[in-house]
């Protein structure tokens, strides 16, 4: 196997950790608590960081993402 350029390695890593085109994220309340919040509180690794963490105290309401 030949050497792989660093840009290709980075692109492959980003692809692995980003949702595929057409990916839809509509979890139930239970899925959010069990699958996301529990893991977040325990500091466990998440394969796909789909929910951004925002310090909402640093922003005005109209500046928050998705508003």
From TrEMBL:
Keyword Hydrolase found: no
Gene Ontology biological-process annotations: regulation of DNA-templated transcription
SUPFAM superfamilies documented for this protein: NAC domain
Domain (NAC) ranges: 19-67
Membrane spanning stretches: none
Source domain of life: Eukaryota
Keywords: DNA-binding, Nucleus, Transcription, Transcription regulation
The name this protein goes by in its record: NAC domain-containing protein
Organism from which the protein derives: Aegilops tauschii subsp. strangulata (Goatgrass)
